[in-house]
Amino acid sequence: MSEDGLWPVKEGTAIFSPGPLTAAEKDRQGSRAQLDRELAKASWLAPVSIEVFGGVINPEKLHFPFNHMQAGDTRDWTAIHTWSNKLVALLRPEPAGQVADNLASIR
Q1: Best exposed site among 10, 31, 87, 106 by fewest CB in 10 Å?
Q2: What pLDDT is recorded for position 53?
Q3: Contact, 54 vs 20, CB < 8 A?
Q4: For residue 73, what are the domain limits?
């Protein structure tokens, strides 16, 4: 930890996307495919981790026509916290051999 109380961070980008409004694996895969198509347009970007999590729709907070959508919440907070904790370990400076191990654990 540095003098300012912050952990030094290695360069890296991690990307997450809110995904489907159902828990169906087929829908999660569709959301991931859509994200992958968009990321392919940014070939210069090399994220260390990419993840899709369930999404949420709260029609009361949306404007027309989205306020007519069915409400839903498929966020998995345990999965989100697990992924974010892995990112901390991945992006914190470590001896060279451990970086490859961390990458393998989140892919």
Answers
A1: 10
A2: 93
A3: yes
A4: 14-101
| Average pLDDT for 56-81 | 92
**Which position has the token pair 């007519």?**
68
- Which has more confidence, 11 or 53? 53
Does residue 60 belong to any structural domain of this protein? yes
pLDDT of 43 above 90: no
pLDDT recorded at residue 89? 81
Terminal Cα-to-Cα distance of the chain (whole angstroms): 27
44 within some domain: yes
* Domain count for the chain: 1
Pick the closest to residue 49 from 23, 88, 22, 21 (CA basis): 88
Find out whether 84 and 53 touch, Cβ atoms under 8 Å: no
Q: CB within 8 A of 22, min separation 6: which ones?
A: 72, 74
> Which of left, alpha, beta for 4 (phi over 0: left; psi -120 to 50: alpha)?
alpha
